[in-house]
Each structure stands twice: as structure tokens, then as C-alpha cells.
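Quick one, C-alpha cells below. Sequence please?
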């Protein structure tokens, strides 16, 4: 059977697939590595859409499956005929090499607002990869604590660098296995295993449109990386940030935003607080409410980048589509 992967920029990649082999397995056998994490139909990282052909779906979580007709998870999509599958990212964001596994140690660990931690890791030298932190702004890593079987995916907040520094903003989840370890046991010098970089939540450099970045909670981490990328390259593209939290005390410290405003004078920032008093520097409402209002008042035709909890992402995308923003201008990643 023939499996065709159709990228967002309309590159067609032809692959041989065998009976009983998932679309993800067929792609990897051909040296292509679409985004994937759990590989058992639970996380939704390998979501895509069937354009033509027939298939069966293996066991999966309905919540992980894209709601639109033809939505599939590549790890559980079993072709039963020639199949064409559309990927939600461009050809340049489709890796042609297996995902590396690295070792790192905790360099610093400190609170970031009332509900998150800032975690800075230092990669250990690798015989093949050296020490360089090589990734695209907006990507994420899978982190595994010492002596634990679990791993969790967190977006990088910093930029690629020669020093091997990786920065994360991690939400403290009540009874969370990883965040509980981070809050109660982790300390500088502890070693972690990393897998990555992963993900295709990166800037569309070819687009001439303004960029609107919408984040909730620690969904701000990849947006911070994208903003730092723009600042690094003195990018003059108009850019707007809508950053939302549940409570005002969960807002990240101002010292994170000050250098961004200095480096990007065109940056327009709105802080949104959903519950309780918003304080002096924020407005009341959800990120979807704020986005809807600002789209109505500006009539913008911007590209919209969204990252945060699944429900927030869904409501923001719905608000954007209701305002007439086409899917080709919507970029998203759920946490």
C-alpha cells in the first residue's frame, strides 16, 4: 500500500506501508518522524487528518482524537488501502532523524508566580551531539526524573545556545507525579533524562502577516521562546500577546516581560485574569473573550499562535474561527 503524507505547505511524501503497520510506524520506517509522544492513542500529539483512502483506528482516547471528520492519530491509524494524510505542519518541521535522548542536571529551580516553577537544566556532554542545546523556538522536550518510570512533556522557554542551557516553566499540578517531585524533592545537581526536541509549534517565517500569540498558564513558555526569537533577530513584524491565568497571583513576574518590550517596541501585551480581581496590570476575562474583543476592534488578519490547556485552546480556536480567521492562519499546541 502507498501512504502519502501531505504537509501544511503541500509537499507530498510517498511511503510504502504494510498491512497491520500504523501510519506512524510506516513513516518512521521510511526515515520520517512525525510528532508523537505516548504512541498508544492517549496524548493526541500525532493528530492528523485523512484526505483520502480507508483505514481502521486502533485503541485510543476519544479526547485525543481531532473532532473534525477524518481526524486520526497516526500511532493508531492502520491503512487498509492507499491513504493520504494531511499533517498540521510544514515539510521543514518534519524531522528526518530519530529523536535523541540526552542527560541533563538541574542548574536552578525557583518559583515563577504562585502556581509554577522555573526549571533550568544544563545538558551533559554527549559523544555524538556535544553539549549544544539545539532546538527550534516553540519546541518541547520529554523529561524523566531519576528513578521514575513517568515522563512529561514541557515546552522550552529559552533560545538555542552553545552552553547547553534549557529553560522550562512548569505548572504545579495538585498530586501531579512530576510537578510534585519538582516542588518537594528536586534540587540543583539532580540528573534527568530528556528526549527531544519535539513538536512543530514554530513561527511561520514566510508569512507577511502580524502575529498574535495567545497563551494560558504555562502555555506561555513556548510563546516566550518565540518572542525571544523575534527579539534576537530584531524582527519588526507586528506582534501581540494575550496571556491568561485563573488568578492574578498566577501571573508571571514582570522582569520576564520588560526585556521583551524593550527589544520589541511593536509588542502589544494584554494580561487576562479569569477569576477574581485582575489587579492594576490586567483585564477581567478569559483569553478567548479578549481575543474575540480585540479581533472585533482591530479587524486583524493576523496569524494566531495558541498554546495552553486543551479547553483553553479549543475556546480560543473557536473564537478565532467565529471571527473569520482561516485555519491556515491558526497554529496551536495543547499542554
Amino acid at each position: 500500500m502507498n501512504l502519502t503524507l501531505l504537509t501544511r505547505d503541500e509537499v507530498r511524501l510517498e511511503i510504502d506501508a504494510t498491512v497491520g503497520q500504523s501510519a506512524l510506524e510506516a513513516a518512521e520506517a521510511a526515515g520520517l518522524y512525525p510528532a508523537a509522544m505516548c504512541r498508544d492513542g492517549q496524548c493526541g500529539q500525532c493528530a492528523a487528518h485523512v484526505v483520502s483512502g480507508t483505514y481502521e483506528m486502533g485503541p485510543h482516547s476519544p479526547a485525543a482524537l481531532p473532532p473534525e471528520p477524518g481526524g486520526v492519530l497516526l500511532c493508531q491509524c492502520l491503512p487498509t488501502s492507499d491513504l493520504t494524510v494531511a499533517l498540521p505542519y510544514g515539510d521543514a518541521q518534519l524531522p528526518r532523524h530519530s529523536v535523541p535522548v540526552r542527560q541533563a542536571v538541574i542548574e536552578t529551580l525557583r518559583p515563577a508566580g504562585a502556581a509554577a516553577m522555573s526549571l533550568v537544566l544544563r545538558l551533559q556532554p554527549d559523544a555524538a551531539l556535544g553539549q549544544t542545546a539545539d532546538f527550534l523556538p516553540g519546541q518541547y522536550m520529554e523529561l524523566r526524573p531519576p528513578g521514575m518510570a513517568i515522563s512529561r512533556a514541557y515546552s522550552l522557554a529559552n533560545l538555542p545556545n552553545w552552553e547547553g542551557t534549557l529553560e522550562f516553566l512548569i505548572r504545579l499540578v495538585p498530586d501531579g507525579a512530576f510537578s510534585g517531585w519538582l516542588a518537594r524533592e528536586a534540587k540543583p545537581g539532580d540528573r534527568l533524562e530528556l528526549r527531544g526536541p519535539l513538536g512543530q509549534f514554530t513561527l511561520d517565517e514566510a508569512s507577511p502577516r502580524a502575529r498574535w500569540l495567545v497563551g494560558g498558564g504555562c502555555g506561555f513558555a513556548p510563546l516566550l521562546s518565540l518572542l525571544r526569537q523575534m527579539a534576537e533577530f530584531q524582527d519588526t513584524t507586528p506582534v501581540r500577546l494575550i496571556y491568561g491565568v485563573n488568578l492574578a497571583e498566577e501571573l508571571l513576574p514582570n522582569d520576564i516581560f520588560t526585556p521583551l518590550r524593550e527589544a520589541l517596541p511593536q509588542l502589544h501585551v494584554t494580561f487576562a485574569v479569569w477569576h477574581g480581581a485582575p489587579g492594576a496590570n490586567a483585564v477581567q476575562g478569559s483569553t478567548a473573550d479578549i481575543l474575540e474583543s480585540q479581533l472585533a476592534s482591530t479587524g486583524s488578519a493576523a496569524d494566531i499562535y495558541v498554546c495552553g490547556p486543551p479547553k483553553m485552546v479549543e475556546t480560543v480556536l473557536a473564537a478565532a474561527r467565529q471571527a473569520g480567521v482561516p485555519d491556515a492562519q491558526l497554529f496551536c499546541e495543547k499542554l
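The chain has a mean pLDDT of 89. The helical segments are 23-29, 177-184, 220-232, 258-263, 287-298, 310-322.
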